[in-house]
């Protein structure tokens, strides 16, 4: 209770003398602290109206997590990495496109002749190194092997280049079964390799010597004759007609090859249709086969546009028109298609052909 000393004194001691009371009163007057004035409360009638109350927003309802929710899909670190990668790839694509546009303008301004086959005389020493990586990436080794395995009898390879098929030939005849499971004589009785470029032929010959050291022995070399010649495929003939006799001394066959092989050759020659027609004429008419593994136009227009745009520059440098329509060339040659296959967006073509039979010839 906050009673002042005066009141206390008066309540407790009214009986004391008046002088003492006066003293006590003056003391109390002297000591009593001044009470802080309470702010006067406005009477209820004069109070200011309360400020309008803002509606209190309702708290968002917390939805329960979806039972399949497993937290954020990507960590921030992964998102940063992906962002930087996308940026890098976009910059690289931009650079590629700029280089491609520059090369197309250059190629279109060139005046490349149709016949670029002489380029191989200069590129022969580096040819293998140049094609090695792309051939490995495209698994061309197994495609070459599968095609050359079919070769049998007296075999001619045209546009042989540096002899990239040499390791796949089976030298010497043997009994076996063909791809359809029928009994057949397989392997080469003789092998002749020709190419227009003498430089390419000499590399192929060296390669053969290191692959078959047994050919230093003349006796063995005679068993399955192998020869190399610098010659045009468009006019190649059988130098020494392969004549076989039966027991009565009669000729069994004329001046034909049983198998003619060509890989990546149609792109390099000035007259691919005429060359194929000629090869058809020197292939044994009944059972002879022409085996091709070629590269050219694709199934896809976008890729053909790229091949077309850059073709003059590529042909001028490498001696090969990579945008040729191999299917159209084969069709125009009039040879009969036994088998056709394509790989690598349709740019790699494999054909097994045979001469058109007498009555079917146009
Ligand atoms: C792209 S290279 C292919 C070489 C080899 N066949 C291969 O698969 O690696 C083309 C070859 O065809 C040869 N060539 C071009 N025109 C020719 C022709 N009319 N007759 C013979 N060979 C030719 C070139 O000299 C070159 O060696």
How would you explain this protein's 3D organization?
The protein has ten helices and eight strands. By secondary structure, it is of the alpha/beta class. It has a domain at 119-237 and 253-357: Rossmann fold (3-Layer(aba) Sandwich). Strands 1, 2, 3, 4, 5, 6, 7 and 8 form an eight-stranded mixed sheet that branches. Mean pLDDT is 86; it is low at 1-18. Residues 117, 120, 158-161, 164, 195-197, 200, 232-234, 263-265, 268-269, 320 line the site of S-adenosylmethionine. The chain crosses the membrane at residues 78-100.
User: How many separate helices?
Assistant: 10
Terminal-residue CA separation = 136 Å
Arithmetic mean pLDDT: 86
Q: Specify the biggest β-sheet.
A: 8 strands, mixed
Which band does the percent of strand residues land in?
A: 15-25%
Per CATH, the architecture of one domain is: 3-Layer(aba) Sandwich
Structural class: alpha/beta
Q: Per CATH, what is the topology of one domain?
A: Rossmann fold
The total beta strand count reads 8
Topology as a string of helices (H) and strands (E): HHHHHEEEHHEEHEHHEE
Bound molecules: S-adenosylmethionine
CATH superfamily of one domain: Vaccinia Virus protein VP39
CATH class descriptor name of one domain: Alpha Beta
Cα-atom radius of gyration: 50 Å
Q: What kind of assembly state do the chains in view correspond to? A: single chain
Helix content: 25-40%
């Amino acid at each position: 209770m906050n009673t002042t000393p005066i009141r206390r004194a008066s309540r407790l001691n009214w009986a004391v003398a008046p002088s003492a009371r006066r003293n006590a009163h003056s003391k109390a007057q002297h000591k009593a602290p001044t009470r802080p004035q309470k702010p006067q409360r406005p009477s209820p009638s004069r109070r200011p109206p309360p400020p309008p109350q803002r509606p209190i927003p309702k708290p968002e309802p917390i939805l329960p997590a979806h039972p399949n929710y497993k937290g954020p899909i990507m960590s921030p670190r992964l998102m940063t990495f992906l962002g930087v990668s996308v940026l890098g790839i976009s910059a690289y694509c931009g650079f590629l496109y700029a280089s491609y546009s520059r090369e197309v303008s250059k190629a279109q301004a060139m005046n490349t002749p149709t016949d670029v086959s002489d380029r191989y005389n200069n590129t022969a020493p580096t040819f293998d190194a140049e094609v090695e990586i792309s051939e490995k990436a495209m698994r061309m080794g197994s495609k070459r092997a599968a095609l050359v395995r079919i070769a049998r009898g007296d075999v001619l390879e045209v546009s042989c280049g540096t002899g990239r098929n040499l390791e796949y030939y089976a030298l010497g005849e043997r009994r076996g079964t063909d791809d359809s499971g029928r009994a057949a004589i397989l392997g080469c009785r003789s092998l002749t390799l020709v190419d227009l470029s003498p430089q390419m032929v000499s590399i192929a010959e060296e390669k053969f010597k290191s692959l078959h050291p047994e050919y230093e022995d003349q006796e063995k070399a005679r068993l399955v004759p192998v020869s190399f010649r610098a010659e045009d495929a468009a006019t190649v003939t059988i130098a020494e007609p392969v004549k076989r006799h039966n027991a009565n001394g009669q000729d069994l066959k004329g001046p034909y090859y049983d198998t003619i092989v060509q890989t990546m050759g149609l792109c390099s020659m000035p007259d691919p249709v005429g060359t194929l027609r000629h090869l058809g004429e020197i292939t044994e008419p009944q059972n002879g086969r022409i085996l091709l593994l070629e590269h050219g136009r694709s199934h896809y227009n976008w890729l053909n546009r790229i091949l077309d745009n850059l073709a003059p520059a590529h042909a001028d440098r490498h001696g090969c028109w990579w945008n040729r329509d191999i299917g159209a060339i084969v069709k125009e040659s009039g040879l009969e298609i036994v088998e056709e296959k394509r790989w690598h967006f349709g740019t790699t073509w494999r054909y097994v052909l045979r001469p058109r039979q007498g009555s079917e010839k146009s």
